[in-house]
Amino acid sequence: MCARGGLAIAADDTVYFTDFKSGHLGTLNTTTRAVKLCASPGGGESNPYGITITPDGMVWYSESGVRPNTIVQFDPKTQSLRALTFLPVEESFVHQGQSA
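Above: the chain's sequence. Below: its structure in token form.
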């Protein structure tokens, strides 16, 4: 499930969200109400934006505050983040209210 603005819900009802201002990926366990924050690979000014969960359970989002922009993969099983740098052009920046 993908939602504009940084919220996605996994099959196990875990809520994943991006915190644009602080540069974090967050998780909310809806059973225990525990919240965890993981620093995005690009740091506090990485401006993570957008989020989706693929059928294999991987969580993906964009870091729009780093150049070049990156796509980040989060593996819920290993709790690991991996940044993939392959958005090399400035025109790749997409933000709320804008289109590609």
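Residues 7-86 form a domain with the Thrombin, subunit H fold (CATH 2.40.10.500).
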